[in-house]
Amino acid sequence: MTALWIIVVLLLLATLLCLIPPLLRRAPAAQPTSEANVRAFYLAQREQLRRDMDNGSLTAAAGIRAEEELQRDLLQDLDLRRGRSAPWAGQRAGITAACLLTVLIPVAAVLLYGQLGNPRAAASASAGQPAEPHAADAGNDMTLAINALAQRLRTAPDDADGWYMLARSYETLGRYTDAVAAYQQVLRLVPGQPAVLADLADALLSANQGNPDDASIAAVAQALAAQPDQPKALALAGMMALRRGDAAEALAHWERLQAQLPPDSEAARQIQSNIAQARAMAGAPASTTATASASGSAPISASAPPAAGAAPTPAVTAARISGRASIADALRGRVQPSDTVFILARPEEGSRMPLAILRMQVSDLPRDFVLDDSSAMSPDATLSRASKVRVEIRVSKSGTAAARAGDLGGALSGIGVHANGLTLVADTVVP
Using the 8-state DSSP alphabet, how is residue 391 labeled? Predict the structure, then answer.
């Protein structure tokens, strides 16, 4: 940091050295005409007046007046030339300007750096660390960009791509109600788009804590009617069917989806796990389960009975995520002890429906937490079925996990389902 400020001071001094000396330099004094020359000129003029009076060109009275004017001009000319020998007024103005620049330039530099520069860079340099963007700054920048996009769409509401981008951005922030409204704007402009209908259904489910309602069911049905192989719609249709106890329909949707997925992909493994769960719920025969296992993925459900004489299936380690949740000290004043706190885990990819969720109050924080399959909202959507999740904390004044303006939030992405010792902090404000 010392080296940085030395460079800054040297640059300021160089600037001042370029500007100040010319202002302090004394202007060369004008070389006054000698009084002897002025007097000689006056005598010549007076002799000319006398000649004019002698030859009658001037009357005596006119000659006297002309000589008086000549004398007055002589005195003024002598005073003017004496004043030019000491141009102190101009030099004083230069000194004043130099003093002002000496003060104003450093002050202006400091003010501009504070407004346009990165003061954290100096602090990081003093600690021997590289300057990095603050997470809150990044979040604020993203929020500002999203708000700017929303403002632009108010003046240009027929931009379907803009509305779609806004909807996806709202989902990233957890503002699912706003995302639903944005997806509806997309469908107003381009009706019947299967992918957008599936996205709308997913946002509706997330806003409703994973519980299907008439709107989300209708959106999935419309998407599949327009495109029977729409991947997200098939996944959501299977989940909805299983929730209402129709395992056969869930199997039909998920098996159709499985045929479209790369066999070694994470999505394929997730769907295979869902299929195994549905088969177990439907009471599928052991031979069917064995066929599924032979295809490359064993069912994870413990409820499916093993085939007679078959070797016992190795136990699957139950998913468990633990850590400590808290609120950033700077934001404590924004919440009340009775405000609701949600800690939840969502799949990193695919559906945004929470796989596990805890509920508490601000007065409970800071507090250790554990998310596992016992905190799942649905038996067909658990932590054990995921590989990577996004762990979130939401401080809600309204008592709902869907993000609303003024709520606090925080998130950790790319978390494995056996992670321990997490530090989860509510450090951002939902705009």
Answer: E
